[in-house]
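Record type: monomer structure entry
Structure origin: computed from sequence
Chain ID: A
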Amino acid sequence: MELDLGLVRTFVEVADTEHFGRAAGRLHLAQSAVSRRIQRLESQLGVSLLVRTSRSVVMTDAGQTFLTDARALLAAAEAARRRLTAHQRLEVAFVPGVSPSPVIAVLRADGHDLDIGMRRVQWYEQGDVLRTGGADVLLGRLPICGEGLRTEPLWTESRMVLLPTNHRLADRSTVQLADLAEEPMVRHDGPVAVSWDAEHNIDPRPDGRPVPRGPIVRTLEEKLEYVASGVALTILPSSASTLFERDDLVVVPVADAPPATVALAWPDDRQRLPAREVFLAAARTLRR
Protein backbone atom coordinates (compact mmCIF):
# COMPACT_ATOMS: atom_id res chain seq x y z
CA MET A 1 0.00 0.00 0.00
CA GLU A 2 1.33 3.43 -0.99
CA LEU A 3 0.28 6.34 1.22
CA ASP A 4 -0.24 9.77 -0.32
CA LEU A 5 1.57 12.23 1.94
CA GLY A 6 -0.83 14.97 0.87
CA LEU A 7 -3.69 12.95 2.34
CA VAL A 8 -1.67 12.28 5.49
CA ARG A 9 -0.95 16.00 5.89
CA THR A 10 -4.65 16.76 5.50
CA PHE A 11 -5.50 14.28 8.25
CA VAL A 12 -2.96 15.84 10.63
CA GLU A 13 -4.36 19.32 9.98
CA VAL A 14 -7.91 18.15 10.72
CA ALA A 15 -6.69 16.37 13.86
CA ASP A 16 -4.82 19.48 15.03
CA THR A 17 -7.68 21.90 14.39
CA GLU A 18 -10.50 19.48 15.24
CA HIS A 19 -12.46 21.16 12.47
CA PHE A 20 -12.76 20.55 8.72
CA GLY A 21 -13.34 24.23 7.93
CA ARG A 22 -10.30 25.48 9.85
CA ALA A 23 -8.14 22.74 8.35
CA ALA A 24 -9.36 23.75 4.89
CA GLY A 25 -8.32 27.33 5.56
CA ARG A 26 -4.83 26.32 6.65
CA LEU A 27 -4.43 24.07 3.62
CA HIS A 28 -5.92 26.63 1.19
CA LEU A 29 -8.51 24.07 0.08
CA ALA A 30 -12.28 23.95 -0.11
CA GLN A 31 -13.90 22.18 2.84
CA SER A 32 -15.40 19.62 0.48
CA ALA A 33 -11.91 18.83 -0.85
CA VAL A 34 -10.69 18.18 2.70
CA SER A 35 -13.60 15.80 3.28
CA ARG A 36 -12.81 13.92 0.07
CA ARG A 37 -9.14 13.63 1.03
CA ILE A 38 -10.00 12.15 4.42
CA GLN A 39 -12.35 9.67 2.77
CA ARG A 40 -9.61 8.61 0.33
CA LEU A 41 -7.12 8.14 3.16
CA GLU A 42 -9.60 6.07 5.16
CA SER A 43 -10.26 3.99 2.07
CA GLN A 44 -6.52 3.40 1.58
CA LEU A 45 -6.06 2.40 5.23
CA GLY A 46 -9.31 0.44 5.50
CA VAL A 47 -10.28 2.07 8.81
CA SER A 48 -12.33 5.02 10.04
CA LEU A 49 -10.05 7.79 11.38
CA LEU A 50 -12.47 10.57 12.26
CA VAL A 51 -16.02 10.99 13.48
CA ARG A 52 -17.65 14.25 12.51
CA THR A 53 -20.11 15.81 14.98
CA SER A 54 -22.26 18.90 14.60
CA ARG A 55 -19.64 21.05 16.33
CA SER A 56 -16.27 19.36 15.99
CA VAL A 57 -14.29 16.35 14.83
CA VAL A 58 -13.38 13.44 17.10
CA MET A 59 -10.69 10.90 16.31
CA THR A 60 -11.45 7.20 16.53
CA ASP A 61 -9.10 4.86 18.35
CA ALA A 62 -7.56 4.01 14.98
CA GLY A 63 -7.19 7.72 14.26
CA GLN A 64 -5.38 8.30 17.55
CA THR A 65 -3.01 5.44 16.78
CA PHE A 66 -2.37 6.59 13.21
CA LEU A 67 -1.77 10.23 14.23
CA THR A 68 1.56 9.41 15.85
CA ASP A 69 2.71 7.54 12.76
CA ALA A 70 1.36 10.27 10.49
CA ARG A 71 3.43 12.93 12.25
CA ALA A 72 6.52 10.72 11.99
CA LEU A 73 5.91 10.16 8.25
CA LEU A 74 5.61 13.89 7.58
CA ALA A 75 8.67 14.68 9.69
CA ALA A 76 10.72 12.08 7.81
CA ALA A 77 9.55 13.42 4.45
CA GLU A 78 10.39 16.97 5.48
CA ALA A 79 13.85 15.91 6.67
CA ALA A 80 14.49 14.17 3.35
CA ARG A 81 13.38 17.24 1.45
CA ARG A 82 15.66 19.49 3.51
CA ARG A 83 18.62 17.22 2.75
CA LEU A 84 17.86 17.38 -0.97
CA THR A 85 17.26 21.14 -1.14
CA ALA A 86 20.47 21.87 0.76
CA HIS A 87 22.40 20.65 -2.32
CA GLN A 88 20.35 22.49 -4.95
CA ARG A 89 20.92 26.04 -6.16
CA LEU A 90 17.74 27.99 -6.80
CA GLU A 91 17.84 30.99 -9.12
CA VAL A 92 15.27 33.61 -8.09
CA ALA A 93 14.43 36.53 -10.37
CA PHE A 94 12.64 39.64 -9.11
CA VAL A 95 11.53 43.01 -10.42
CA PRO A 96 12.32 46.36 -8.76
CA GLY A 97 10.20 46.90 -5.67
CA VAL A 98 9.41 43.21 -5.13
CA SER A 99 12.04 41.92 -2.74
CA PRO A 100 12.83 38.22 -2.23
CA SER A 101 14.21 39.01 1.25
CA PRO A 102 10.93 38.38 3.17
CA VAL A 103 10.65 34.94 1.55
CA ILE A 104 14.24 34.11 2.46
CA ALA A 105 13.52 35.22 6.04
CA VAL A 106 10.62 32.74 6.18
CA LEU A 107 12.86 29.98 4.82
CA ARG A 108 15.52 30.63 7.43
CA ALA A 109 12.96 30.81 10.23
CA ASP A 110 11.75 27.37 9.14
CA GLY A 111 15.28 25.98 9.16
CA HIS A 112 15.80 25.84 5.37
CA ASP A 113 19.31 26.64 4.19
CA LEU A 114 18.83 26.95 0.44
CA ASP A 115 21.58 28.04 -1.91
CA ILE A 116 19.80 30.97 -3.58
CA GLY A 117 20.99 33.16 -6.41
CA MET A 118 19.12 36.43 -7.02
CA ARG A 119 18.72 38.27 -10.31
CA ARG A 120 16.98 41.57 -10.87
CA VAL A 121 15.05 41.79 -14.14
CA GLN A 122 13.01 44.42 -15.95
CA TRP A 123 9.32 44.05 -16.77
CA TYR A 124 10.00 42.93 -20.33
CA GLU A 125 12.33 40.15 -19.11
CA GLN A 126 9.93 38.45 -16.66
CA GLY A 127 8.72 35.71 -19.00
CA ASP A 128 11.98 35.28 -20.90
CA VAL A 129 14.13 34.74 -17.81
CA LEU A 130 11.96 31.74 -16.89
CA ARG A 131 11.57 30.31 -20.38
CA THR A 132 15.31 30.46 -21.10
CA GLY A 133 16.32 28.89 -17.79
CA GLY A 134 17.85 32.06 -16.40
CA ALA A 135 15.73 31.64 -13.27
CA ASP A 136 13.73 28.88 -11.62
CA VAL A 137 11.12 31.16 -10.07
CA LEU A 138 10.12 34.81 -10.33
CA LEU A 139 8.70 37.36 -7.94
CA GLY A 140 7.17 39.80 -10.36
CA ARG A 141 4.18 41.89 -11.35
CA LEU A 142 1.31 40.94 -13.59
CA PRO A 143 1.06 40.67 -16.50
CA ILE A 144 3.80 38.05 -16.77
CA CYS A 145 3.63 37.15 -20.44
CA GLY A 146 4.63 34.02 -22.28
CA GLU A 147 3.61 30.45 -22.95
CA GLY A 148 4.52 27.59 -20.67
CA LEU A 149 4.44 29.59 -17.42
CA ARG A 150 2.42 29.24 -14.25
CA THR A 151 1.50 32.33 -12.25
CA GLU A 152 0.03 32.70 -8.78
CA PRO A 153 -1.05 36.08 -7.32
CA LEU A 154 0.34 36.91 -3.87
CA TRP A 155 -0.93 40.39 -3.01
CA THR A 156 -2.06 43.67 -4.53
CA GLU A 157 -0.73 47.20 -4.20
CA SER A 158 -2.33 50.59 -4.58
CA ARG A 159 -1.11 52.84 -7.38
CA MET A 160 0.53 56.24 -7.35
CA VAL A 161 1.09 58.79 -10.09
CA LEU A 162 4.59 60.22 -10.33
CA LEU A 163 4.63 63.97 -10.89
CA PRO A 164 7.23 66.74 -11.14
CA THR A 165 7.03 68.98 -8.08
CA ASN A 166 5.84 71.94 -10.19
CA HIS A 167 2.89 69.98 -11.66
CA ARG A 168 -0.64 71.35 -11.17
CA LEU A 169 -1.61 68.20 -9.19
CA ALA A 170 1.54 67.91 -7.07
CA ASP A 171 -0.06 69.41 -3.94
CA ARG A 172 -3.11 67.13 -4.04
CA SER A 173 -3.52 64.41 -1.38
CA THR A 174 -5.12 62.11 -3.99
CA VAL A 175 -6.12 62.28 -7.64
CA GLN A 176 -8.63 60.52 -9.86
CA LEU A 177 -7.91 58.95 -13.23
CA ALA A 178 -10.08 61.68 -14.77
CA ASP A 179 -7.56 64.24 -13.49
CA LEU A 180 -4.93 62.54 -15.66
CA ALA A 181 -7.05 62.24 -18.81
CA GLU A 182 -5.01 64.71 -20.88
CA GLU A 183 -1.61 63.76 -19.49
CA PRO A 184 0.82 61.81 -21.72
CA MET A 185 2.10 58.63 -20.05
CA VAL A 186 5.46 57.00 -20.65
CA ARG A 187 5.18 53.77 -22.59
CA HIS A 188 6.97 50.46 -22.08
CA ASP A 189 9.47 48.95 -24.49
CA GLY A 190 9.93 45.32 -25.37
CA PRO A 191 7.74 42.47 -26.62
CA VAL A 192 5.28 42.85 -23.72
CA ALA A 193 4.76 46.59 -24.29
CA VAL A 194 1.10 46.37 -25.31
CA SER A 195 0.01 44.34 -22.29
CA TRP A 196 2.12 46.40 -19.90
CA ASP A 197 0.82 49.70 -21.24
CA ALA A 198 -2.74 48.43 -20.88
CA GLU A 199 -2.17 47.25 -17.30
CA HIS A 200 0.14 49.86 -15.85
CA ASN A 201 -1.01 52.95 -17.73
CA ILE A 202 -4.62 51.76 -17.33
CA ASP A 203 -5.08 52.17 -21.08
CA PRO A 204 -7.81 52.59 -22.09
CA ARG A 205 -9.26 54.32 -19.07
CA PRO A 206 -12.53 53.12 -17.49
CA ASP A 207 -14.50 55.58 -19.66
CA GLY A 208 -12.97 54.05 -22.79
CA ARG A 209 -10.69 56.96 -23.64
CA PRO A 210 -7.16 56.08 -24.81
CA VAL A 211 -4.21 57.41 -22.85
CA PRO A 212 -2.13 60.14 -24.56
CA ARG A 213 1.13 58.55 -25.66
CA GLY A 214 4.47 59.60 -24.20
CA PRO A 215 8.03 58.41 -24.84
CA ILE A 216 9.10 54.75 -24.69
CA VAL A 217 11.26 53.65 -21.74
CA ARG A 218 13.14 50.51 -20.70
CA THR A 219 13.97 51.25 -17.06
CA LEU A 220 12.56 52.95 -13.98
CA GLU A 221 15.40 55.46 -14.13
CA GLU A 222 14.30 56.56 -17.61
CA LYS A 223 10.75 57.02 -16.30
CA LEU A 224 12.05 59.29 -13.54
CA GLU A 225 13.93 61.49 -15.99
CA TYR A 226 11.00 61.93 -18.38
CA VAL A 227 8.68 62.81 -15.50
CA ALA A 228 11.14 65.22 -13.88
CA SER A 229 11.58 66.93 -17.26
CA GLY A 230 7.84 67.44 -17.59
CA VAL A 231 7.61 65.35 -20.76
CA ALA A 232 5.17 62.71 -19.46
CA LEU A 233 3.85 61.10 -16.28
CA THR A 234 3.84 57.49 -15.07
CA ILE A 235 1.68 55.40 -12.75
CA LEU A 236 3.60 53.18 -10.34
CA PRO A 237 2.73 50.46 -7.83
CA SER A 238 3.15 51.79 -4.30
CA SER A 239 6.25 49.67 -3.59
CA ALA A 240 8.01 50.93 -6.73
CA SER A 241 7.43 54.51 -5.59
CA THR A 242 9.70 53.85 -2.58
CA LEU A 243 12.73 52.99 -4.72
CA PHE A 244 13.87 56.57 -5.19
CA GLU A 245 14.07 59.83 -3.32
CA ARG A 246 14.30 63.00 -5.38
CA ASP A 247 13.54 66.60 -4.57
CA ASP A 248 12.10 67.22 -8.05
CA LEU A 249 9.50 64.43 -7.95
CA VAL A 250 6.42 63.63 -5.87
CA VAL A 251 4.01 60.68 -5.79
CA VAL A 252 0.27 61.07 -5.26
CA PRO A 253 -2.18 58.17 -4.74
CA VAL A 254 -4.62 57.50 -7.60
CA ALA A 255 -7.80 56.82 -5.65
CA ASP A 256 -9.79 55.02 -8.36
CA ALA A 257 -6.97 53.11 -10.07
CA PRO A 258 -7.27 49.32 -9.98
CA PRO A 259 -4.56 47.72 -7.83
CA ALA A 260 -1.35 46.27 -9.20
CA THR A 261 -0.72 42.58 -8.53
CA VAL A 262 2.49 40.97 -7.28
CA ALA A 263 2.73 37.33 -8.32
CA LEU A 264 4.88 34.23 -8.36
CA ALA A 265 5.76 32.66 -11.70
CA TRP A 266 7.66 29.55 -12.69
CA PRO A 267 7.95 27.27 -15.75
CA ASP A 268 5.08 24.84 -16.18
CA ASP A 269 7.47 22.04 -17.05
CA ARG A 270 6.02 19.47 -14.63
CA GLN A 271 9.46 19.23 -13.03
CA ARG A 272 8.96 19.54 -9.27
CA LEU A 273 12.29 20.95 -8.15
CA PRO A 274 12.38 20.40 -4.36
CA ALA A 275 14.11 23.75 -3.72
CA ARG A 276 11.51 25.59 -5.81
CA GLU A 277 8.62 23.86 -4.04
CA VAL A 278 10.06 24.95 -0.68
CA PHE A 279 10.46 28.53 -1.94
CA LEU A 280 6.91 28.62 -3.30
CA ALA A 281 5.52 27.36 0.00
CA ALA A 282 7.43 30.05 1.91
CA ALA A 283 6.23 32.77 -0.49
CA ARG A 284 2.62 31.67 -0.08
CA THR A 285 2.80 32.36 3.65
CA LEU A 286 3.21 36.05 2.74
CA ARG A 287 -0.03 36.10 0.72
CA ARG A 288 -2.33 38.92 1.79
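Annotation 1: The mean pLDDT is 90.
Annotation 2: The CA atoms of residues 149 and 267 lie 5 Å apart.
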